[in-house]
């Protein structure tokens, strides 16, 4: 498993934590380079430092639980019946694509994603939020993080 696959998988765990703590639903962008990642989320206010710390703690708790990450390939209609628009990000998947790869961390995060993922959350390694930035004009929260190399 490459370092960037681990950094990518951490996006799913971090998103689940942000959804739990802040009620965030939509991802607006992601970037991964080496052990650094950045998750950009649609959000209507600047979170407190305490909320950011709780997101980091929740993400690491889920990593330590070391639960399976299931990658399924399924019909788009079937996936929408199961999870509705939870599987989507702000950037749309063209209607012509009818089979989706779904990355599913049970009771945590589900997302249509065609990237490679670790087999379990524990393989990611510890996650540390390095910086957050709230962009009021765009109504987005950027969370930058590093994982242990
Ligand atoms: Zn993914």
Number of domains: 1
Largest sheet: 4 strands, antiparallel
Overall 3D geometry? Answer: globular
Structural class: alpha+beta
Bound molecules: zinc ion
Calculate Rg over CA atoms: 15 Å
Indicate the topology.
Elements: H1 3-22, E1 27-33, E2 36-42, H2 49-65, E3 70-75, H3 76-83, E4 99-105, E5 109-112, E6 127-135, E7 140-147
Antiparallel strand pairs: 1-2, 2-7, 3-4, 4-5, 6-7
Helix pairs in contact: 1-2
The chain binds zinc ion.
Describe this structure in words.
The strands form 2 sheets. The protein has a 4-stranded antiparallel beta sheet with strand order 1-2-7-6, covered by helices on one side. A 3-stranded antiparallel beta sheet has the order 3-4-5. The N and C termini lie close together (12 Å). The protein has one domain (3-148): 2-Layer Sandwich (Threonyl-tRNA Synthetase, Chain A, domain 2), CATH 3.30.980.10. The chain has helices spanning 3-22, 49-65, 76-83; strands at residues 27-33, 36-42, 70-75, 99-105, 109-112, 127-135, 140-147. The protein contains 3 helices and 7 strands; from the N terminus they run αββαβαββββ. The radius of gyration is 15 Å and the shape is globular. 30% of the residues lie in helices and 32% in strands. With 149 residues, the protein is α+β, with helices and mostly antiparallel strands.
